[in-house]
Amino acid sequence: MKVIAITGKGGTGKTAVAGMLIKHITKGNKALLAIDADPDSNLPDVLGVKIDKTIGDMREFMLQERDKMPPDTNKERVLESKVYEVLTEMPHYDLLVMGRPEGSGCYCFANNLLRGIMDRILKNYDLTIIDTAAGLEHLSRRIIRDVDELLVVTDGSRRGLQTAERIRGLAVSLNLNVKKMHVIANKVTPENRARIEEYARELKMDLVGVVPFDETLARFDLEGRPLAELPEDSAAMRGVGEIAKRMGLY
Predict the structure, then answer these.
(1) What are phi and psi of 211, to 5 degrees?
(2) Between vectors from CA 219 to CA 182 and to CA 26, what angle results, nearest 5°?
(3) What gap in Å lies between CA 197 and CA 158, rounded to an integer?
(4) What's the whole-number mean pLDDT along residues 145-151?
(5) DSSP class of residue 67?
(6) SS3 for 37?
(7) What is the pLDDT of residues 71-98, one digit of tens each?
(8) CA neighbours within 13 Å on the CB side: how many for 49?
(9) 13 to each of 111, 153, 211, 218, how far by Cα in Å?
């Protein structure tokens, strides 16, 4: 079982990279779970999957119903059954969307139950890919933990790599159990590629690969089309494919 989390500051194309990575991984034989842990929940749109309910809805359910349940009710089992209700099974992967709670109550009770449930669910898969929200603070509060590899998506600038450096420091200060961290430079042009590679060396960042700027991807994004429909020969799809191979993901 391996858990890979993908993060980065807003506007870097983090979710697009996550979606393309998932598409490449499905070419192999790994049992794959994709988790959208971003409250904005854009990964289903990128993958072209319709979602009706989220983990956030199940937290709401537990908050509203727990006091109505008989005292001897195993509440963790109840919530676990609800989690499986919102697990979307696709032909080559499963998708779980965290969503966000809508009410104003305290979700500590439900979140505590979810931690154990998610630990059990992840063990059913060879690989879990998590599309997180921007930043890292949420990882210390989320039910997802013990990340094997953290992928930080950045844009083609020195400032973007400096943001990745801050994320690296934050992961250490929060004492998150992140075993490895890599950087992916996205929307890279031929003019700035050499500079990005030089900046990465200066900052001692593990640049696992670059994803070229892709006019086809930009058009898909503008039209709201799922990036899962991108042709295999698109520049961005090829770039992510090389990264997936380098990481041994398929």
Answers:
(1) -115, 115
(2) 50
(3) 10
(4) 86
(5) G
(6) coil
(7) 888 888 888 898 999 999 999 999 999 8
(8) 27
(9) 29, 7, 10, 10
Q: List the structure tokens of 55.
A: 């983990």
The Cα–Cα gap between 120 and 56 comes to 19
Domain holding 89, by residue range, is 2-246
Beta carbons of 78 and 38 less than 8 angstroms apart: no
Query: Rounded to two decimals, what is the model's pTM?
Result: 0.91
Token look-up 């899962």 returns: 228
Q: What is the pLDDT of residue 168?
A: 85
Q: How many domains does the chain have?
A: 1
User: In whole angstroms, what is the distance from residue 97 CA to residue 44 CA?
Assistant: 8
User: Position of tokens 């969307």?
Assistant: 97
Identify the weakest region by mean pLDDT among 47-51, 171-175, 228-232: 171-175
How far CA 24 is from CA of 60, 162, 163, 196, in Å, comes to 34, 28, 27, 25
Output the pLDDT for position 75: 84
Cα separation, 157 vs 76, whole angstroms: 46
| E strand spans, 87-179 | 88-89, 94-97, 127-131, 149-154
The domain that contains 50 carries what CATH number?
A: 3.40.50.300
